[in-house]
């Protein structure tokens, strides 16, 4: 079962919920797909066993061969090539489509690997962890997320900690998911963004449920929305200053607090039951 | 014209709360919500009247005309994005590079089996609030053109205003393309962080990203009293990087009350958070 934890809004508790969740499942795999700002390792503190570079293929200009025809510049839809006396590449704009070096009549561009980030593979006890890290200054972490999601064993529970937002990185992170855990908070911002990610998972026809973090009785609309959308509520994590303090210090709640461990154990049971039922129902449809 | 962008690296640290306060307190300005993935600023800017909304066409998408396609498979072989299967393009995988259309033998013979078509990637909005312009957008579900949409949100705002106005940009979390698109061309960056190890880690990566633009960064520490020890770590980091801390905002439930009432925190001027945020806004005014 592959479970994607997402929220739309940032800072709602995706990493808090997914790391504590993963910690309680023997032999699960935790993937940090928020490759721009990965935080899972702060809490899980894995022993890193392997570091893999993530590379993309970019064109390398060979000015001595260039005829100055500018065909590549005209072709590139992403404005990654310019001709100013000689051919120049703006690597962070390149989508690595390969068009330029294939169409160049003088072979003045050749494919060259460029490192845009890395994967850190590690272990926290029985839990396997994979963290994607995009190098600052790069525009997209999508190739890193692709590599993170590559080759996942089908029999294991995979916890996918998604980036915030609803853009290309989130879409990529959802591609292999069987079920989405939407993490929400009871604020007007949280509700607005929950509505948005609900629309997103419906668009992808992905079954989903909701965990409400920082739960208070303040904004009943969040629960009303879930009821209207037939989104099962998988758990509620109350707002507590002690939770905020543990989170702030980079600690896992389930390691520090017996009540939190019980709460998360219940959430794990509920999520696994609901996800199994919902995905089965989904397959039947 | 001066432009400032509010960023954080980590989400949920209080970018929009600070942006909303600046919107309420500063004069002679225009503002934009460049978190097109999850825009929230409009929720706390009352009295907005929409002036204009437009579809935004980001990247093109390839489309195969089955009546002309000779099923040679060349396009499928050349596509780096795995977007073509069984002589059909999946528009959600297609990045619009145009490789398939360029190398299609039918196209090269002067016909047209693959066309690059315009594709709506989002919607932009131009609104007014008390005669001040506000630009924002919403990304279409399943689209990856956030960075280009951010650029369009800023462009349509600049077309409406004069050089007198200060432009306030509420940015998105992360450090990727939408953030890069919201930094390009601004005069200064305000980074809102929180006293958590995650917040600090993400601030460090944001600072590395902004360094490439050689822009001044000013820091606000939100909810600083939730963890004084980590607040100290944030301050030490800022001192080391020579970043000025504009203020430390206390944790205050009124902030959530304000958001839920669709208001800015500065409309509750006696609240502890508002007092500090108002000071920070004055400092920002004097900086620009």
Written account of the structure:
The complex is a heterodimer of chains A (285) and B (288). Chain A has 285 residues and is an alpha/beta fold. Helix content of chain A is 36%, strand content 28%. Chain A has helices at 14-23, 40-44, 71-75, 99-103, 142-149, 168-174, 188-203, 221-228, 241-248, 253-256, 258-284; strands spanning 2-6, 29-32, 47-61, 81-84, 86-89, 109-124, 127-134, 158-161, 179-184, 208-215, 233-238. A nine-stranded mixed beta sheet of chain A has the order 3-6-7-2-8-1-9-10-11, with helices on both faces. In chain A, strands 4-5 form a two-stranded antiparallel sheet. In chain A, strand 10 (208-215), helix 8 and strand 11 (233-238) form a beta-alpha-beta unit. Chain A is elongated, with a radius of gyration of 22 Å. Chain A starts with a strand and ends with a helix. With 288 residues, chain B is α/β, with parallel strands linked by helices. Chain B has ten helices and 13 strands. Chain B has helices at residues 15-25, 74-78, 99-103, 105-108, 146-158, 177-183, 197-211, 228-240, 253-260, 272-287; strands at 2-7, 29-33, 49-57, 61-64, 84-85, 88-89, 114-117, 120-129, 132-139, 166-170, 188-193, 217-221, 244-248. The longest helix of chain B is centred in the C-terminal third of the chain and has 16 residues, at 272-287. Chain B is elongated and about 70 Å long. The mean pLDDT of chain B is 96. At the A-B interface, helix 4, helix 6, helix 7 and helix 9 of A face helix 3, helix 6, helix 7 and helix 9 of B.
């Amino acid at each position: 079962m592959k479970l994607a934890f997402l929220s739309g809004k940032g800072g709602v508790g995706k990493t808090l919920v997914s790391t504590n969740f993963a910690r309680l499942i023997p032999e699960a795999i935790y993937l940090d797909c928020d490759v721009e700002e990965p935080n899972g390792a702060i809490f899980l503190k894995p022993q890193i066993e392997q570091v893999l570079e993530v590379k993309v293929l970019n064109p390398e200009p060979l000015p001595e061969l260039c005829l100055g025809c500018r065909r590549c510049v005209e072709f590139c839809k992403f404005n990654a090539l310019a001709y100013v006396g000689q051919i120049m590449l703006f690597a962070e704009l390149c989508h690595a489509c390969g068009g330029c070096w294939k169409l160049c009549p003088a072979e003045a561009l050749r494919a060259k690997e460029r490192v845009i980030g890395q994967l850190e593979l590690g272990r926290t006890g029985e839990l396997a962890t994979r963290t994607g890290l995009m190098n600052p200054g790069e525009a997209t972490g999508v190739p890193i997320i692709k590599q993170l999601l590559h080759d996942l064993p089908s029999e294991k529970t995979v916890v996918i900690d998604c980036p915030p937002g609803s853009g290309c990185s989130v879409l990529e992170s959802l591609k292999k998911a069987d079920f989405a855990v939407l993490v929400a908070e009871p604020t007007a911002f949280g509700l607005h963004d929950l509505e948005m990610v609900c629309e997103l998972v419906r668009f992808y026809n992905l079954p989903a449920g909701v965990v409400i973090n920082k739960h208070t009785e303040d904004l009943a609309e969040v629960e009303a929305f879930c009821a209207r959308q037939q989104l099962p509520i998988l758990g509620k994590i109350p707002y507590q200053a002690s939770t905020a303090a543990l989170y702030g210090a980079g600690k896992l709640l389930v390691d520090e607090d017996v009540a939190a461990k019980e709460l998360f154990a219940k959430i794990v049971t509920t999520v696994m039951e609901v996800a199994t039922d919902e995905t089965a129902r989904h397959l039947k449809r | 014209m001066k432009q400032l962008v509010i960023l954080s690296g980590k989400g949920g640290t209080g970018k929009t709360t600070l942006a909303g306060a600046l919107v309420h307190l500063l004069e002679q300005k225009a503002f934009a919500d460049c978190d097109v993935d999850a825009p929230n600023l409009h929720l706390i800017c009352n009295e907005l009247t929409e002036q204009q909304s437009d579809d935004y066409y980001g990247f093109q998408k390839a489309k195969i005309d089955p009546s002309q396609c000779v099923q040679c498979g060349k396009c499928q072989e050349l596509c780096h994005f795995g977007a073509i299967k069984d002589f059909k393009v999946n528009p959600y995988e297609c990045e619009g590079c145009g490789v398939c259309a360029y190398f299609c033998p039918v196209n090269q013979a002067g016909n047209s089996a693959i066309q690059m078509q315009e594709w709506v990637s989002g919607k932009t909005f131009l609104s007014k609030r008390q005669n001040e312009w506000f630009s924002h957008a919403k990304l279409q579900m399943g689209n990856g053109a956030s960075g280009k949409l951010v650029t369009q949100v800023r462009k349509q705002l600049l077309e409406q205003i004069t050089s007198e106005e200060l432009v306030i940009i509420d940015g998105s979390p992360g450090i990727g393309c939408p953030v890069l698109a919201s930094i390009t061309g601004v005069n200064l960056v305000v980074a809102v962080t929180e006293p958590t190890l995650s917040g600090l880690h993400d601030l460090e990566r944001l600072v590395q990203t902004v360094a490439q633009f050689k822009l001044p960064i000013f820091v606000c520490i939100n909810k600083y009293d939730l963890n004084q020890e980590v607040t100290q770590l944030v301050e030490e980091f800022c001192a080391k990087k020579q970043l000025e801390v504009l203020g430390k905002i206390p944790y205050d439930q009124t902030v959530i009350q304000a958001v839920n009432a669709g208001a800015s925190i500065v409309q509750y001027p006696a609240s502890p958070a508002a007092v500090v945020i108002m000071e920070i806004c004055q400092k920002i005014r004097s900086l620009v």
